[in-house]
Amino acid sequence: MFTKVCGLRTEADVATAAEAGADAVGFVFAASPRRVDEPTARRLVAATPPSVLTVGVFKDMPTGEVAALARASGVGAVQLHGDYPRSAFDDLLGQGFRLVRATALTPATEVTTGAYGEDMLLLDSPVAGSGERWDLTALTGRPPTGHWLLAGGLTPDNVRAAVTEVAPWGLDVSSGVESSRGVKDHGRIRAFLAAARTT
Ligand SMILES: O=C(O)c1ccccc1N[C@@H]1O[C@H](COP(=O)(O)O)[C@@H](O)[C@H]1O
């Protein structure tokens, strides 16, 4: 099970997630209580072991700004939330970025990973980073294919049941491993990753 812990803001957050076995860590450039500026992101990327994928998280930001921030911070992949057309993916792919296509599930959502050239598809709640769960039964009859991550209100306590229900390729968590909004709880990060390992 691939695991990503998102919204990290300190070196201690990164070290905890990496030591507890996260495959990826996320740094939020979008408007959020978890937002980090470019110098902070660069510092956190440098503090991340090379075996752990670093992901920059963006929402409705022009691709020129996305590319500039991703390049300057050195993240290994770009996660796009919002209303990006196919051409935005082509633009960033053409510049050599690995992409995560993040979306809520609607009847129109393309659930084939790679349909826009992305490495991973992230299915999230309608308000990304809110900690709200969404109705996983909406996936019945239309299972996503490939490297897709489940996100949205996951916690150490509910992650096993969610995995049993929809069998994702990977998991992404932020709010569920916090003590208060934007502040990571290291015990909860360890508990989440331990629970994910046993699924
Ligand atoms: O974390 C945020 O505030 C955020 C802001 C804008 C876009 C994405 C954001 N976070 C993403 O939300 C999921 C985790 O959600 P949850 O908090 O566990 O419910 C994850 O993909 C983050 O990258």
UniProtKB/TrEMBL annotation:
The EC number(s) this enzyme carries: 5.3.1.24
Domain N-(5'phosphoribosyl) anthranilate isomerase (PRAI) residues, every copy: 4-193
Record-linked SUPFAM superfamilies: Ribulose-phoshate binding barrel (SSF51366)
UniProt-recorded name of the protein: N-(5'-phosphoribosyl)anthranilate isomerase
Family according to the record: Belongs to the TrpF family.
Coiled coil location: none
Species of origin: Actinokineospora spheciospongiae
Enzyme class: isomerase
UniProt superkingdom: Bacteria
A GO molecular-function annotation: phosphoribosylanthranilate isomerase activity
GO biological process: L-tryptophan biosynthetic process
InterPro entries listed in its UniProt record: Aldolase_TIM, PRAI_dom, RibuloseP-bd_barrel, TrpF_fam
Reaction catalysed by this enzyme: N-(5-phospho-beta-D-ribosyl)anthranilate = 1-(2-carboxyphenylamino)-1-deoxy-D-ribulose 5-phosphate
PANTHER family from the UniProt entry: N-(5'-PHOSPHORIBOSYL)ANTHRANILATE ISOMERASE
Annotated pathway: Amino-acid biosynthesis; L-tryptophan biosynthesis; L-tryptophan from chorismate: step 3/5
Alphabetical UniProt keywords: Amino-acid biosynthesis, Aromatic amino acid biosynthesis, Isomerase, Tryptophan biosynthesis
One protein family per Pfam: PRAI
